[in-house]
Amino acid sequence: MSEQAPDMRWWGWGADGAGTGLPAHAREFLEQRIGAGARPREHVPLEQVRVEPSRLPERARAALAAIVGEGGVREDHPERVLHAAGKGYPDLVRLRAGTPDGAPDAVLHPRGHEQVAAVLERCAQESVAIVPFGGGTSVVGGVAPLRGRHAAVVSLDMRGLGELIALDDTSATATVGAGMRAPALERALAPHGLTLGHFPQSYEYVSLGGCAATRSAGQASTGYGAIEKMVLGLRLAAPAGEIALPALPATAAGPGMRGLLVGSEGALGVITELALRVRPAAAARSYEGMFFRDFETGCEALRALARAHALPDVARLSDRAETEVSLALAGDGGVKGRVGRAYIGARGYADGCIAILGFEGDRHEVPARRRRAMRLLRRAGGLGLGSSPGEAWQHGRFAAPYLRDDLLDAGVMVETLETATRWSNVGHLHRAVRDAIAGALDAQGTPGIVMCHVSHVYETGASLYFTFIARQIEGAEIEQWRIVKRAACDAIEDNGGTITHHHAVGVDHVPWMEREIGASSLQAIAAAKERLDPAGIMNPGKLLPTG
Amino acid sequence: MSEQAPDMRWWGWGADGAGTGLPAHAREFLEQRIGAGARPREHVPLEQVRVEPSRLPERARAALAAIVGEGGVREDHPERVLHAAGKGYPDLVRLRAGTPDGAPDAVLHPRGHEQVAAVLERCAQESVAIVPFGGGTSVVGGVAPLRGRHAAVVSLDMRGLGELIALDDTSATATVGAGMRAPALERALAPHGLTLGHFPQSYEYVSLGGCAATRSAGQASTGYGAIEKMVLGLRLAAPAGEIALPALPATAAGPGMRGLLVGSEGALGVITELALRVRPAAAARSYEGMFFRDFETGCEALRALARAHALPDVARLSDRAETEVSLALAGDGGVKGRVGRAYIGARGYADGCIAILGFEGDRHEVPARRRRAMRLLRRAGGLGLGSSPGEAWQHGRFAAPYLRDDLLDAGVMVETLETATRWSNVGHLHRAVRDAIAGALDAQGTPGIVMCHVSHVYETGASLYFTFIARQIEGAEIEQWRIVKRAACDAIEDNGGTITHHHAVGVDHVPWMEREIGASSLQAIAAAKERLDPAGIMNPGKLLPTG
After folding, report:
1. ipTM of the prediction
2. DSSP β-bridge partners for residue B164
3. Which of B214, B242, B543 lies nearest to residue A520, judging by beta carbons?
4. Which long-range contacts does A20-27 make (Cβ < 8 Å, 24+ apart)?
5. Cα–Cα distance for residue pair A208/A184, rounded to 1 Å
6. Which of A77, A428, A462, A535 has its CA 20 to 30 A from that of B366?
7. In the structure, what pLDDT confidence band is assigned to residue A334 with cuts at 50, 70 and 90?
8. Which of chain B's residues have a Cβ under 8 Å away from the Cβ of A369?
């Protein structure tokens, strides 16, 4: 049943040899707009990546090997480098330079809940910190190998818990090992005509336990819901004991324990099993593009759609900057050529905003839902672009992290961050965060391009997903990034956004958590943590200021 | 803005003079079937209700009066009786006999969050337990005036926090004081063409803070979602500090704090404000009845509907016993007469099960949704009964608690309890709980009628709502009830159900909480409680075994 989950290349995204490099017109565009791309910057060879000798005490190593087997305790250089960081911009900058910010002293490969539970118990005794590691795709430092106050730190690679445990088709419920990768589950569900419907940009590599631990939201979450809506039950191994919550459609038996553990980021324990809601696989799909005169008009149209309960499953709306860059980077073979800027311009939509709308489901329902939604959107000022942009988006929906590697090769800083807010504040927050990022880039002498799209739509508000690019300041890449990140996060908290809609807290967002949920909330979570993890070995430095 | 929230009669449901008494045919039916109804049992007069002298120390009384004003500290007999209990069966049995299980030493009437916060701080210093009291409609002992280890206990009546604080129409978000009653909010929203859509059976009296604190689900929650889906933000006053979570459509900033406080039942603090998702008020409504050959066929039809995303907003399916009793009690003027049992019988549906399906929403969408759903249901074996049963159900949707008073007058024990489980277990759980209740009644020499309906439908499962009636054992009513309740709860936990789908934990379900969520979950919640409420004054005896 289990299939080996793939490793990613240690210095970037995807398998070795993935990515196609920047085409000439993209390189020109970058040169012209942000003065980057002239000087290629390669990553160092793997053997030059500096990793300190393992500090895992021999007694702890032996005890852990007794649990997971000798082959389950890996201390070799390549394995430690692979688990030295997630896939955030600072992670990749450091890895490519051969100077990761630490590495786990060992990587453990447990098989099954009982081994995980035994590892936790032993690590608590030996003062060894544990970093749960699923797909390793965190972009906020969620898998950073921090020791906290402990003697050593181990990465707990979850791929040995990668199986479909049970499928209750009648109840539309799949029970999986937390290390199972999202594509592996889809492959297991396909013969049954079912799907989970969780497709984050990291889909190809992400683990389901990681998705739950970080409150992940997929690109189609407007239709399928974020992972929080899918988790019906779960099993958590904590140093002080186990929590097993059976799969239930709903319950009022006290505070929402499922919701408390979804988003616990490995700080309360390790999610080892998940019972997930699945759905009939889409028999029909319709993805298409639409143009709006400006971002405000597009937002208002999506809001009207949400209010009318006429939302598609994927709903995205790019602002002008993102629309312009998408069209420019796509080249003549992409959206630009196929749609024709001239056509759009002629109808008064020059400098407009592109939206992607995707409908999935039943063969009879998709056309009806689509008709109603498109009618409402046209009434709200949308200009239909047909299916080409939709197909182009579907084709490239997981491509951005590969493109990031190409941009890093070209000396370009590229980072994303995201938030959400109520509809009445979307326009204001969009401007505030955009201006904060642009201002922080300008102030450093590296003016950039700040782009944004609405990525998930709700009845009461929407998420905003920002991407920015600028020329790297060589030798000060991390500090350059930190200044921009801080400005963006401050702008988010000062202007009514959440510090994260779906990237989670990790290390990067910890400083804003008190402003986000307040000191008393943090105290309550810390108290729960102390009870479940008295030695404080679980993922130190993540989630909580005191972690 | 604020309007005076109504009191209920102290011994039952609704205003004085409410209820119409049992019609003759209903009395006959009860006599025949459970041997009850012969001997009327009146409640004692209010002045005969026994309440011990207040134990609130004078120093505490003065300090509290300094916060809420002299008029805000009530120690008079009627006020203490009104707050002596909720509206569960044992509550009403005791109240009617004039022997409530204790009473609050005083009833406080704070106005606004700051007064609540000041009361909590002072009560922690004075060792005075606090029972938050919204509509007082708990049927599981949620407002029982338990002192725990404290010198005294006060009931905190929330009606002074009963205002609509803000309405953000653009964001479909209403911010309310937690003491606001559900009908008051609907009245405030109606001029804006909006609705909350939360209609529990207790709708006429329930407070919104109470709904949130108990994870309430309304009758239309299949469409509108339970209260948990509506709470976008909230403010909680806890003895150790305040938690303020702003209204957000979604967030991944750590564990689900909103979901942790929704369902906290006053044990972590007092919810003082709520930001709630609202929706356009239904412009069209279509409610109708359908008959199924048996409960299994009906369940399977609802499951197919859920899987096809074709659910109505209200979806209920009565089992045979409940269908039979509904038809019998309705009399010739009700469903029975209008639908015609002969017609149903002739088509082979004798002894079948009735379903109520309600569609609400947009004038154009309701007919389309209805057509699709009814087609799927007919294909699954449903026989359409037209709109009469739907109208009858709508007319009587809040009537059951009034009927309960009439049944108590007639010496009938009547109680409800509810659970939820995955679809593949619905039939098994239905039989197990029904048989457990029937067995416990038989064993006491009071054979009864056990009825059930599916009350809320999900993609992955459904809730089951049980009602049972039997002849009261005079003088041992509470013990009789306890034996049945225990049997039912054991059956639920032994057979894969949740101990409560929407009635909450209160006092009654505490003994089953460890089996439901496990010792480690309870420890984690208890740790959070100890941090927020170090003196343990918040609603002792509820929610947690150690509360």
Report:
1. 0.95
2. B176
3. B242
4. A20/A402, A20/A406, A21/A406, A21/A409, A22/A406, A22/A407, A22/A409, A22/A410, A23/A331, A25/A328, A25/A329, A25/A331, A26/A328, A26/A329, A26/A331, A27/A410
5. 10
6. A462
7. very low
8. none
